[in-house]
Amino acid sequence: MDTYDQGPKLGMRRKKNYADNSAAGKGKRPDFFLLSSRALLSKGKDMTSEADLQQALIELGTKLPDWGAAAHGKMEYLLCYACAGSQFQMCAMRLGISGTHQFRRPLSLITLEDRLQIVLIAVQRYWVMKAQAKQFSAVFLWAE
User: Fold this and answer.
1) Domain assignments of the chain as residue spans, ordered by start
2) Strand, helix or coil at 117?
């Protein structure tokens, strides 16, 4: 989406956590990050079995829970996704509240109607993230 946007770019880049291959792994990071030039925009968790969708949502809420005002300014929500087998679930984390809030029902990558919904969600998600990026702090302090 960033490629086709006529306005200011988000400077997005993605990172994949290849070290944590299973739900039983002890990694502290989610599977997928979408970063702007300054901060985390979104994160995701991928599992192989449809039965693990709830576990993926739980792990999203517990891995990398400490995002906040130092990097994200006034941004109150972090968009997330969980994918397990052919099931896809959009969710969000709210600043200062543990866990995830699920949007609607899980969507299936098998049915055409749900796949079209996922494409629409991806486009809408981009515009939400672009609006959120305007809320980032003017000064970025990276704590390690």
Assistant:
1) 13-17+28-133
2) helix
